[in-house]
Amino acid sequence: MPFATRANPGLRALSAAALLCLATLPNGAAQAASCPQKTIASSLFKTGLDKWKSNTPAEIAWASSGGNPDGYVQFTDATSAGTYIDAPTTYHGSYAALNGAGYITYQHQIFSETGVTAYSPYEVRLSGPGGAAKFDGTTPTSATSGWVTVVAPLVSGDWTVTSGTWSALLANVTDLQIDIELVTNQTIPGDTDIEGIDNIALISKPCGFFSPP
Ligand SMILES: [Ca+2]
Ligand SMILES: [Ca+2]
Questions:
Q1: Which of 12, 78, 135, 143 has the greatest number of beta carbons closer than 10 A?
Q2: From the CA of 108, how far away is ligand 1's center (Å)?
Q3: First-residue to last-residue Cα distance in the chain
Q4: What rounded mean pLDDT belongs to the chain?
Q5: CATH of domain 3-15+42-204
Q6: Where are the domains of the chain?
Q7: pTM of this prediction?
Q8: Which ligand lies nearest the alpha carbon of 80?
Q9: Residue 192 CA: which ligand is closest?
């Protein structure tokens, strides 16, 4: 399964470190013991949208199958607005304890597309009273043949702070957005694209990203 990271050596290292704990390795049990992780919030979309919302709700629907596994959030383009999904309150609150010690992950797929003019990077945005920041992963170059896992470490160097400060933002996160639409089309309506997101999670990883296994 491909992983989306920025073309940034530091981030590649971070993501590789994060993935060590995600991957099923022969010594996975030993790693899990030395680097425990805890799921703060997760959304598997087994029975519905799990209270996720969107800026364009008419273009978002729950698909009961075709996810990884079971259901997922499906986007079908119908307007020129860029569509994102908005997390429920279970993802809100203080991320201070996750600073350098946690990550956001999800899986994304571009199922079909016509009249493509551009692609946007995988992007996650956090905001709150203390500030706002965005994480950009790699940019897809075609429809994807499977689910692409995106890992956004909560490490300040991997994010662009767009207002306030990183630490003030993490003190109280009141909005988490994930772009579900990455494809820009020539003519809307007319051209369209179908994209999806599954398996979103906010994970605590207290050992951070540089601790030895
Ligand atoms: Ca699912
Ligand atoms: Ca589109």
A1: 135
A2: 11
A3: 23
A4: 87
A5: 2.60.120.260
A6: 3-15+42-204
A7: 0.85
A8: 2
A9: 2
